[in-house]
Design brief:
Blueprint: H1 2-16, E1 22-25, E2 37-42, E3 48-55, H2 60-71, H3 84-91, H4 95-107, E4 116-117, E5 123-129, H5 130-137, E6 142-146, E7 150-154, E8 159-162, H6 163-166, E9 169-173, H7 202-209, E10 223-227, H8 235-244, E11 252-255, H9 265-277, E12 283-287, H10 297-305, E13 314-317, E14 321-322, H11 328-343, E15 347-351, E16 368-369, E17 377-382, E18 395-401, H12 404-416, E19 430-433, E20 436-439, E21 443-447, E22 450-454, H13 457-477, H14 487-496, E23 501-502, E24 531-532, H15 534-544
Parallel strand pairs: 10-12, 10-13, 11-12, 13-15, 15-17, 17-20
Antiparallel strand pairs: 1-8, 2-6, 3-5, 3-9, 4-5, 6-7, 14-16, 18-19, 21-22, 23-24
Helix pairs in contact: 1-4, 2-11, 8-9, 9-13, 13-15
């Protein structure tokens, strides 16, 4: 009897709601068709379309403030992290909102039992036929094809919802965004000329960052690499890498898909270097690599993290899009997912990108997202000779404002740097990136049964992440909390204890017609504070928690 009762309740709610007035969601303007995609015609009406309704969080200002407080070393709430249950209780949409969405879906013929609501109650997933989706969103879905990415069903027009729904829905994933493999800012630059001939391997990393002989011993420690876009790793490759460098055999917990017969360079270098630097740290391979029939990877990833009470403390992610290609609604809503993770004490490290300052045809900077979010740590790159890597993405966000915790570091750089790019090229009041950096050239990996060298900030992110895991090991073993969303702490430490970092003072990240930023003493927009000097950085973090 339960299902009929639910259906009857939702039917009653539909009868009491007004669905005639509609409002646009995300944008009133058409969405541009990304490069390389071909419109092949109308989508067949019976094709099933997977959709995710991403709902507004409740009390967003409180969420932001709490995420800031637990991340601020000067706050009395520093490292006072919240459980997933507490976050759900305070910030999840109320049941009335869930019922409103469900009732509208039922009105369009969706079986109530086929509507999936995540534990955090802010993601609602369904599959509907193209014909139904066209009516639901007042759109015309079409089929698009790409030589590398295959076929997807999307619309490039704006979409709308009945106004009562539009007020509670941030965006609907699966309608307007296209898979963007070509926009990964990362890897496989082994065919290009190197700016340094120094080979980077685990032994070189340990010596450079002061982690020789350091292994994790705390069972509560954990780390992860996030993988998207059909990127997998082969356990046999990892074993060969471990054997050459006499690394402890690392068990890897796989979440999602991992096709061990089809290892990718991105996934392989990530898993090899996070385990080589974060020695003996329980490691997860968190994969949304199947692309979920064209669904959006960040949405899937965020959903996956928020389904679990226990998740790894440190996450390395080597994926990014041009900040300007993402709608403000999408950036803001995903940023709230980062804030939830910050409130839980989770550390997110994103590769800053491999396009230097980034450059539009108008000779203005083009930063990368999510590296530009204030709730992630952006990791730039330098080579084995400790010169800033030309490809290391850095500069200033055109969307996110500059947070208080980095204003002094930025001001010092702008005041003392004699060769700044033209002021018209960048947004001096924006969030500045990167925050830190690590090796991004001539990095040795074992993939697909052979040794090779790769480059890109994709190498830097997992390398720095492993060092963060070793710091967490020291904190946890001392009865303290993990570093969490660590940017405010990094900038406080950088100002008071500069020897906590391997400072990079030479290099420039010019791109196209855009002049680059010079690396300099202290923080700079090419390499951030530089690489980690583990013994000093560990002590500094231990001192922050009384």
């Amino acid at each position: 009897m339960a299902a009929p009762l639910v259906f009857f309740a939702l039917f009653c709610l539909v009868q009491g709601a007004s669905w005639t007035q509609r409002s646009f969601v995300e944008s009133e303007r058409p969405h541009p068709l990304p490069y390389g995609w071909l419109d092949t015609g109308l989508a067949a009406e019976d094709v099933m379309v997977p959709l995710t309704f991403v709902l507004n969080v409740r009390q967003p200002n409180l969420l932001l403030n709490k995420a800031l407080e637990v991340s601020d070393p000067d706050s009395k709430f520093y490292a006072n992290y919240a459980s997933l249950d507490n976050i759900i209780a305070e910030f999840a949409p109320d049941q009335k909102t869930i019922n409103l969405v469900k009732s509208w879906l039922v009105k369009h013929g969706v079986d109530a039992e086929n509507i999936e609501v995540t534990p955090t109650r802010d993601f609602v997933r369904v599959k509907v036929p193209v014909a139904t989706a066209n009516k639901m969103f007042d759109i015309t879905l079409r089929q698009f094809k790409h030589a590398e990415h295959g076929t997807v069903v999307r619309t490039v027009g704006p979409y709308s919802l009945p106004t009562p729904l539009a007020k509670v829905v941030s965006f609907v994933a699966g309608l307007v965004r296209f898979p963007a493999k070509g926009q990964i800012k990362s890897i496989e630059r082994q065919a290009e000329k190197r700016q340094s001939d120094v080979i980077v391997d685990p032994k070189f990393v340990w010596k450079s960052f002061g982690t020789e002989g350091i292994k994790s011993t705390n069972n509560n420690n954990s780390q992860a690499v996030a993988q998207f876009l059909a990127q997998y790793y082969a356990p046999d490759d990892l074993t060969a890498f471990e054997t050459k460098y006499v690394l402890p055999k690392q068990h890897v917990t796989v979440v999602g898909t991992n096709d061990i017969t089809n290892p990718g360079m991105e996934a392989t270098l990530d898993i090899e270097y996070i385990t080589a630097t974060g020695l003996n740290v329980p490691t997860w391979f968190w994969s949304t690599s199947g692309e979920h029939e064209g669904q959006e990877r960040f949405v899937d990833w965020a959903q996956g993290l928020n389904k679990r009470e226990t998740i790894p403390w440190v996450h390395s992610i080597s994926y990014g899009d041009d900040e300007s290609t993402i709608t403000s609604t999408y950036k803001d809503r995903l940023d709230q997912e980062f804030q939830k993770l910050a409130l839980r004490g989770i550390t997110l490290l994103f590769a800053s990108g491999d396009n230097g300052v980034g450059c539009k045809d108008t000779c203005t900077n083009l930063p990368n997202w999510p590296a530009s979010s204030t709730f992630v740590t952006a990791v730039g790159g330098f080579d084995g000779s400790f010169n800033g890597d030309t490809i290391s993405s850095g500069g200033f966000s055109n969307y996110f404002s500059q947070p208080d915790w980095q204003k002094q570091a930025v001001a010092n750089y702008l005041k003392n740097e004699p060769h700044l790019p033209p002021s018209t090229q960048y947004n001096v009041t924006g969030r500045a990136i990167p925050d830190v950096s690590a090796f991004s050239e001539n990095v040795e990996v074992y993939c697909g049964g052979s040794w090779t060298f790769v480059g890109g900030t994709s190498c830097a992110a997992p390398t720095f992440a492993g060092v963060v895991s070793l710091i967490n090991d020291a904190l946890l073993s001392a009865g303290k909390k993990p570093v969490g969303s660590m940017n405010p702490a990094l900038y406080k430490i950088g100002a008071s204890t500069p020897k906590a970092f391997v400072d990079i003072t030479s290099g420039n990240n010019q791109n196209g017609c855009c002049k680059g930023f010079d690396a300099a003493q202290g923080w700079d927009p090419q390499t951030g504070w530089g690489g980690p000097n583990f013994p000093v950085l560990k002590s500094a973090f231990l001192a922050l928690q009384k």
